[in-house]
Amino acid sequence: MKIAMGSDHGGFELKEEVKAYLKDKNIEVVDFGTHSTASVDYPDFAEKVGHAVTEEPYDFGIVMCGTGIGISIAANKVHGVRAALVYDEKTAKLAKEHNNANIIALGGRTTTKEEAFKIVDAFMNSTFEPRHQNRLDKITKIEEHE
Ligand code: RB5
């Protein structure tokens, strides 16, 4: 498994925790930054992770900002991205089962590291349910017409 990660300063510490958690599980992680708590702009990292997951062989991406809101909005502007802001195991599971999200977004100031580990596990251990494919196709059509 290969995961792309990115955050702004608000998500930096949580990103480092989740990255270490995944590496402990022998999962390959590519970190697109940021690499410190210095103030940066979340769209820059959303764009990098968005392009990585849509153009390269990543299984999915994880992005973080203070709340997960801004970076999820920005990631969803990249064609082919389905970024889901998830805040517990249930939303993480449904983001995979119903939406086949290719990026999950978490808030470094709203989610603890213990919650984040459970969220990431719930997402990774879930499977897309193909009965929802026609809805995803409709999302793609919106993208094509914009
Ligand atoms: C940055 O201070 C903060 O606005 C950002 O991390 C994020 O929460 C935006 O949605």
Folded structure, characterized:
With 146 residues, this protein is of the alpha/beta class. The protein has a single domain (2-145), classed as Sugar-phosphate isomerase, RpiB/LacA/LacB (Ribose 5-phosphate Isomerase B, Chain: A), CATH 3.40.1400.10. It has six helices and five strands, in the order βαβαβαβαβαα. The protein has helices at residues 9-24, 42-55, 69-75, 89-97, 113-124, 133-145; strands at residues 2-7, 28-31, 60-65, 83-85, 103-107. The protein has a five-stranded parallel sheet with strand order 2-1-3-5-4, with helices on both faces. Helix 1 packs across helix 5. The termini are far apart. Bound molecules: D-ribose. D-ribose binds at residues 8, 10, 42, 65-67, 69-70.
Query: CATH superfamily membership, which one?
Result: Sugar-phosphate isomerase, RpiB/LacA/LacB
Tell me the strand percentage band.
Answer: 15-25%
Number of strands: 5
Query: How far from one another are the termini?
Result: 33 Å
Compact overview of the structure:
This protein is α/β, with parallel strands linked by helices and 146 residues long. It contains 6 helices and 5 strands. It has one domain (2-145): Sugar-phosphate isomerase, RpiB/LacA/LacB (Ribose 5-phosphate Isomerase B, Chain: A, 3-Layer(aba) Sandwich), CATH 3.40.1400.
